[in-house]
Amino acid sequence: MLHDRYPGWNVLSQRDHWDEATRQVVLDRVQNVPPFRHLDHHQRRTLEAICDRVIPQAHRPPTKRVPIAPWIDRNMANRVLNGFRFEDMPANDDAWYWGLQGVDETAKELFGSEFVDLDGAQQDAVLQAIRVGEPPGSIWQRLPAKRWWIHVALRQICGVYYAHPYAWDEIGFGGPAYPRGYAALNHGAPEWWEPREVSPEGGEVAS
Fold it and tell me: What integer pLDDT is reported at residue 117 of this predicted model?
């Protein structure tokens, strides 16, 4: 069972302290999950399965799970780029197409089935092979596996997750501080409106 470090915290309770533009952007992430319109059905399922292994959310109520794959698909459809690219890596769209295909190739080589049809332990083994940079599969002859894992898969999955207010609740983030501003300029102590971390034993963790 996971320990809730900030029990009862709901960053959206602070929405009235945000400016209108910020409030609209943050609420849009909760209220308007984009439909898939870029990846095909199988690519979508593979991406969702990878997201589930990177950031498991089965412990959360369905209404409190962060939708990661739809936002990655939206960024691909809208050509949202990182602003940089390694010389041995393809453009972001191709990196995802090749990477998802490579995940399936590795799954078939190791276990004889596509990634979405494997159990959790087998899926972890596939991703571990990619993480260490030694996965079987022809795609990885032209796509650096370790670099893809770190700079495409992990970077974008975690980036989408931690841009969502439900993830902010999990880490005790108090939300945008504009126009209220920061006042507790004392070695990272929480602001007066931010939650205090609770230890597994139930006591407040010292700042």
Answer: 98
Per-position b or e across 4-36, b if 16+ CB within 10 A of its CB: ebbeebebbebeebbeeebbeebeebeeeebeb
pLDDT digits (tens, 9 = 90+) for 17-62: 999 999 999 999 999 999 999 999 999 999 999 999 999 999 899 9
DSSP β-bridge partners for residue 18: 179
Is residue 178 scored above 80 in pLDDT?
yes
In this structure, the number of other CB atoms found within 10 A of the CB of residue 71 comes to 21
**pLDDT band (50, 70, 90) for residue 202:** confident
DSSP SS3 for 9:
coil
**3-state DSSP assignment of residue 182:** coil
Smallest Cα–Cα separation from 107: which of 139, 66, 153, 71? 139
3-class DSSP state of 143: coil
Burial class of residue 93, CB neighbours in 10 A (0-12, 13-18, 19+): middle
Written as six digits, the tokens of 77 are 């459809």
Q: Which is it for the CA torsion 22, 75, 36, 52, positive or negative?
A: negative
Provide the total of helices (H) and of strands (E) in the chain, helices listed first: 8, 0
Nearest to 15 by CA among 204, 183, 176: 176
d(CA 169, CA 164): 9
Q: What's the rounded Cα separation, in Å, for the pair 22 and 29? A: 11
